[in-house]
């Protein structure tokens, strides 16, 4: 929305309130005209979609990177997946953007705070504009929900870029605010349904990596977004019991619901299972972000055998059980005797 | 208010030996006299139309004067938008240059050193990036050599390229840029050939070799430990010891603890025989907060410690290297961290006694 539209939009609201007359501006008219043709998010499921063969993944010399700060991939017409460029932050988290008839949900906001360092807000606005143009809607009519998978800065750093965005609500940075944002009273067991306007997102607690973490299931694409508690890399498990219970909840969920892909927030592993050390800014051969149900189940079966802190490789992910500040996988390549 | 000469503040002891803004005598200290010992040898009052090459007098009672009082470029929060020079050049004095690779080109941000003598120049180490468009080391060295040659009235300045460790990919990548450079001698990389070149085949690692730059003879001291082919260089003109990966203000990965201790013992003995002003290593990982350091792969290091280390740190490193020899562990000291046989990402819950534990604010 440009400045002119923004001003006239607010004026239109005021006029409507005072005069009680609808359809006074073009945008109101556009809104009303499109309400009739809601997109059907509930039949022919799962909605087909695809992941890119290769994500933007940094470069050997970061200052010579010419890729955009955010890689925007449209999984299908109503689902975008964003990824931060590794040359902008080594964390390079993924961020799904789900569109419904009334609302847009952005999950995770990357590891760079300021808008003049990377314009995430602008990228999200562009995606929304593009989607609205395709679907004949007024961007100003869409509510944006800015949420994150868990309470770590690489997932909420850019939240403040949305602070002055109209029709936007964003998650607070405390456990209480996060749980309250989804209206939960019985975290982590309670499963709530977020209605984006015909498109339902199921949300429940998934602690273990941190206390304050959610799993998100999109009923349209049937992608299960597992945040940092299960992703293609080193799952840093801070609290084993809650993590294992969360895995059990995930397995129970996938036993009863159709799931197309399991998707985490990062990739830290190559296609051949080679570990990319923490902090690396170039992953030329990285594994895909999406995982299969089979991989999730294998990891769960493997986890059942784990009794001690340590690093375990399930074939898909590294389970770093309570090891974060003690051990890593890499070795000094120059050792000799 | 003018600074009192009796001020008890000693910038050298505060780890701030050269900072122009924090010196106690920003306008100079007249008590020190007008002709300090090192200064006499940096005379460059050469004739306007010289008849021949200038022959510089490198004989020196104390360390030649010089200054490293620049801040190193330290990357940026968003590495992709960094616009700092790819190679930062700091001239220590007329015949000594320090170059640093941009942190956003490669996180190791290695230091390379260019020394001049009356018969030639020596480049110590070559950086972590081979691609000359990302890291134009050769171009930078060529420019410095050309200008230095013009100032000294020399048309030919033979260059020797030597590495503190040929196997270290953080220091040997730039070497390919010098392939085919005219009038250039590259010290061979394979360990046996390198020993042969320095003439220490029989005496490795106790002997020492020499690189004669013309009245400035650089001593080559075998110092394996971090790398099995590690060497250190001693410059008797500036009294610098270039220690590469063996000893630098950062995360020192010990690859063989017996060699590491033995090399530090040899350096201790060497420093007792020869004046050493500073140790200059290959990298900086430490912050200016004691015992705090940047992890690997970081492109933004705004709280970096200064590069130079005082020679007493050899003793400190030796003491603690002996302490952890034979143990797979890491040990934090105010000015360096030792990793013995553990992952380079190892973390420790043990904090050194008597060292203030100060958390750096998170830069965002």
Description:
The complex is a heterodimer of chains A (337) and B (364). Chain A is 24% helix and 21% strand. With 337 residues, chain A is an alpha/beta fold. Chain A has one domain (37-321): Ribonuclease Z/Hydroxyacylglutathione hydrolase-like (Metallo-beta-lactamase, Chain A, 4-Layer Sandwich), CATH 3.60.15.10. In chain A, the strands form 3 sheets. Chain A has a 6-stranded mixed sheet with strand order 1-2-3-4-5-6, with helices on one face. In chain A, strands 7-8-9-10-12-13 form a 6-stranded mixed sheet. The longest helix of chain A has 17 residues, at 3-19. The termini of chain A are far apart. In chain B, helix 3 (257-273) runs antiparallel to helix 4. The model of chain B is unreliable at 1-9 and 11-17 (pLDDT under 50). Chain B has one domain (79-340): Metallo-beta-lactamase, Chain A (4-Layer Sandwich), CATH 3.60.15. By secondary structure, chain B is α/β, with parallel strands linked by helices. In chain B, the strands form 3 sheets. In chain B, strands 1-2-3-4-5-6 form a 6-stranded mixed sheet, covered by helices on one side. In chain B, strands 7-8-9-10-12 form a 5-stranded mixed sheet, with no helix packed on it. Chain B has a 3-stranded mixed sheet with strand order 11-14-13, covered by helices on one side. Chain B is globular. Chain B is built from 4 helices and 14 strands. Classes of the chains: A alpha/beta (337), B alpha/beta (364). The interface between A and B is large, with 36 and 42 residues. Chain A: It comes from Alteraurantiacibacter aestuarii. Chain A: Keywords: Hydrolase.
Q: What can be said about this structure in brief?
A:
Chain B: Residues 109-283 form the Metallo-beta-lactamase domain. The complex is a heterodimer of chains A (337) and B (364). Chain A has 337 residues and is of the alpha/beta class.
The total of helices of chain A stands at 7
Structural class of chain B: alpha/beta
Give the end-to-end Cα distance of chain B, rounded to a whole number of Å: 37 Å
Biggest chain-to-chain interface with counts: A-B, 36 and 42 residues
Could you tell me the strand content of chain B as a percent range?
Answer: 15-25%
- What's the pLDDT, averaged over the residues of chain A? 89
Shape of chain A: globular
Write the H/E string of chain B, N to C.
EEEEHEEHEEEEEHEHEE
CATH class of chain B: Alpha Beta
Q: Specify the helix fraction band of chain B.
A: 10-25%
Can you tell me the CATH architecture of chain B?
Answer: 4-Layer Sandwich
Share in helix of chain A: 10-25%
CATH superfamily of chain B: Ribonuclease Z/Hydroxyacylglutathione hydrolase-like
Distance between the termini of chain A: 65 Å
Sequence of secondary-structure elements of chain A: HHEEEEHEHEHEEEEEHEEHEE
How many individual domains of chain B? 1
What strand order characterises the main sheet of chain A? Answer: 1-2-3-4-5-6
Instruction: Calculate Rg of chain B over CA atoms.
Output: 20 Å
| CATH topology assignment of chain B | Metallo-beta-lactamase, Chain A
Keywords (chain B): Hydrolase
Protein name (chain B): MBL fold metallo-hydrolase
Organism (chain B): Alteraurantiacibacter aestuarii
GO molecular function (chain B): hydrolase activity
